[in-house]
Amino acid sequence: MRYITTPIYYVNDKPHLGHAYTTILADTMARFYRLQGYETKFLTGTDEHGQKIEQAAKNHNNSAKEYADKISLEFKKLWDEFEITYDIYARTTDQKHIDFVQNIFLKMYEKGDIYKDEYEGHYCISCESFFTPTQLINHLCCPDCGKETSLLKEESYFFRLSKYQDKILKWYEESDPILPKNKKNELINFVQNGLKDLSITRTSFNWGIKLPKELKDDKHIIYVWLDALFIYVSSLQDENSKFWPAHIHLVGKDILRFHAIYWPAFLMSANLPLPKFVAAHGWWIQDGEKMSKSKGNIIDPRKIAHTYGLEAFRYFLLKEVSFGNDGDFNEQSLINHINAELSNEFGNLLGRIIGMSAKYSQNYIDHKDVLIYFSEEYQQAKKHLKEAINFLEVLQTNHYLEELFKALNVANLSISKYEPWNLIKNNENKKANALISLCANILAQVSILLNPVLPNSTKKVAKALNFEISSKTYQKLILNNELLDFKASPCEALFPKIEQKSQKENEIKQENKAKIKIEDFSKIEIKIGLVKDCQAIPGSDKLLRFELELEDNEIRQVISGIAKHYNPKDLIGKQICVLSNLKKAKIFGYESDGMILSAKSGDKLVLITPEQLVENGSLIG
Ligand code: MSP
Known about the structure:
This protein is α/β, with parallel strands linked by helices. The chain folds into 3 domains: 2-281, HUPs (Rossmann fold), CATH 3.40.50.620; 328-487, Isoleucyl-tRNA Synthetase, Domain 1 (Orthogonal Bundle), CATH 1.10.730.10; 518-620, CATH 2.40.50.140. The chain has 21 helices and 28 strands. Strands 1, 2, 3, 4, 8, 12 and 13 form a 7-stranded parallel sheet that branches. α12 (331-361) packs parallel to α14 (397-418), α13 packs antiparallel against α14 and α16 (429-450) packs antiparallel against α17. The model has no long low-confidence stretch (mean pLDDT 92). Bound molecules: 5'-O-[(L-methionyl)-sulphamoyl]adenosine. 5'-O-[(L-methionyl)-sulphamoyl]adenosine is lined by residues 7-10, 18-19, 21-22, 47, 228-229, 251-252, 254-255, 283-284, 290-292. It catalyses: tRNA(Met) + L-methionine + ATP = L-methionyl-tRNA(Met) + AMP + diphosphate. InterPro entries: Anticodon_Met, Met-tRNA-synth_bsu_C, Met-tRNA_synth_2, Methionyl/Leucyl_tRNA_Synth, MetRS_core, NA-bd_OB-fold, Rossmann-like_a/b/a_fold, tRNA-bd_dom. Zn(2+) binds at residues 124, 127, 142, 145. It comes from Campylobacter novaezeelandiae.
């Protein structure tokens, strides 16, 4: 039995590429478990309480519930359009969830794990999280998102998180539940530094779950994270309760702490078993920054899927980044993956098999001589398939796809090497047919294993070669090494090559790229600045803080997301270009007065410098 969950998404924001990635990855895993024959439940849904949602609703002149209904439906519609195979679409405003949370709260209270006191601390509404003064950036800003926090002093109920410190460490040690493995140490350090009891109720707003009636304390609302995390259990009532504990909670790295520290403690307090894995993926970033509505750098997943096809989009997301790392969204790379892998290696192989079997064996593909002539090639492909499965079990989707394409490559290379048309010419019909069968069996097995990522295209392969993709054939072909006979029939080309690269590429970006007039350009002021100082920003692996000298010795502070591309020391003394009349902004708690210009070349950002030394502050135009 396997139960996999995505985080439940806040309804203050429309779904974007980051959300789509989490959901598509979880969908791939759920499909993989079903293929392996596990009884599977896959949960996704929305997180609808809290101050952040209350505020967003107000901004839209909606009641909180109306607003939550609207955005929750948007998420659901997108997942339906994307053919996401969720079994449970959970919402924290569902009455059965509310009842469940109140019950559990009471249980934890009665056990002595919850007590009442007074809270004073810094709260970030955006992250719905408390911080101590020493954790803040510049004594004010949230260390996670950089936004300003507010000082809160209110009566609050507390959860005895400190009591669970050692038990949590023991869980990391004994069960090794964190994926990728390298995230474990960060968590151990955090927990070893000491866990403070956690404030788990609020009184300064209304939109949330009230305390259980038994406590007769009506003004308190249950902390949104305690409310939200229990959705994973509250959604599994009655006959579904057997699915707990979860096999994997899939989360973004920003919310790993909630899932790997608070959540196991809450579960222990509630006497419930702990999940097997908590797996944290990286972020999709644009120009060095996490994609988010507030930064205005979001990519609409629907547009990409419409432009390039849903399956190519799924493939790209899972191939482009290594699990746990950040990924920069780049359309050119998407096109390259479609052309080089999906079209050349995968689609073409099917075309070649159909063509050759029609020509040489009346569409019949007989497996009887494969191991006589091509045992080595077959074993080699098999080795890649085995590796692929091992990688997918731990969500290393890029390596899993790499291995599957290595197996396809064995087939494609064998065709070039043995040239079946020449074998036929030389009357080696048996060998030629065995070669076609080798390729068809590899393609069939790869298609079964690729099915969780490309459900529709692999079904087309199965139809064209007349076999089935199911947990039965997974068992037979993948695990028991059976070879099949096939009867091929014509099929439309899979993943036709994308020729008009630039035109396609522009379709998505065009929206913001209307032509401008010279008057518009004249509003822009770009100047040359001398880098007087340049430092990495503590706590960020992307940002650098520049001090630039412009005309009349004016010194400006500018924050730029190029830390991954330059060593700050190397930039001191260089002249660079800065957009100097940009409105000031706060980035990661630092004021930024301008924007440093760089050219994007593939994955790299390259600073633009004048061709010869000029006066500081010189205007560009
Ligand atoms: N509501 C909480 C989760 C509660 S789970 C009990 C939440 N919601 S969220 O909508 O802000 O984020 C949901 C998920 O989307 C997180 O895992 C987050 O990491 C992910 N992403 C949001 N932006 C992202 C990117 N730019 N890239 C990849 N994923 C990111 O947190």
